[in-house]
Amino acid sequence: MDTTSEQERYQALDLILELVVLLNADMSRRLAADQLTPARTTVLWTLRGRGPATQRQLAEALDVSARNITGLVDGLAGADLVSREPHPTDRRATLVTLTRRGTQLVETLEAEQREFASLLFDDMPAPRLHGIVDGLADVVGRLKAEGLKAHE
Amino acid sequence: MDTTSEQERYQALDLILELVVLLNADMSRRLAADQLTPARTTVLWTLRGRGPATQRQLAEALDVSARNITGLVDGLAGADLVSREPHPTDRRATLVTLTRRGTQLVETLEAEQREFASLLFDDMPAPRLHGIVDGLADVVGRLKAEGLKAHE
DNA sequence: TATTGTTATACTCTATAACTATA
DNA sequence: TATAGTTATAGAGTATAACAATA
Description:
2 copies of one chain form a homodimer.
Chain A: H1 6-33, H2 38-50, E1 53-54, H3 55-62, H4 66-78, E2 82-86, E3 94-98, H5 100-121, H6 126-150
Antiparallel strand pairs in A: 1-3, 2-3
The first copy, chain A, binds a DNA duplex through helix 2 and helix 4.
């Protein structure tokens, strides 16, 4: 049998949407324990990936307004997770930088994410894991192609 | 080769998280075109699934405060998508009910979701789709088991 | 007394527009 | 003149606490 049924396709999307809901709930719960929100965590994650950034660069990276970044950085700075450093050549700009506490927290989050991956997949048979990785990579590719079309 | 590597497990989780981001963006964009938000849409979806409900029941279904439901129903009623009907036996309660417009909108959304499933999966080889469905069902099961543990 | 929903209050995330300081 | 970030303002989603009407 090499054809997919409408029902099967709908079931696949349903599973994905259910997964979205469950993961959002799970992540929000974990983050709240560290007094973090998803939006602020995204800022920390971005800084970890690319190093210090101007607020303008963060706004573009998160696809969010400059005003919004001001608020997110205010919150993170208030928790001593990032600091606003002067930009070396442009006195209008600030370089948002992870503090030591921020760096430590991000490293903890990353470790927890690896633990979480272990929890979900550790005793999963290899063929099944391969099925997920191959299939989802395909779906993500299709979604991105769609997204590009939608932006035209 | 029948063992999974740490790297492969981390990659699987990464793909899932990327999917979450992409789907959230995609859905929000589609809903915004109909002047809808994710939270309000969840109310509509719940009413479609189980028929008229009291606000208290909606609060439990969405796992959200009663106050929050008041606001969501206010917004939906303002758009003529739901109405507050008197409860037949309890004069304290209201029965939130889909209007004709609300019913039509939910049906449209469901049709669009089916189209979306086609778009993602139509020309995907059957084994790959099976891999996704089996793998994700497994992951969802593990997540739910975790969630239950976390609530203890 | 307990429950349903609302008002009061507050915080986060989000947006646009006007403004300041610099380029 | 254009750009970086802030202040002003507004709306959605979320919460807790106090309150009114009803059970």
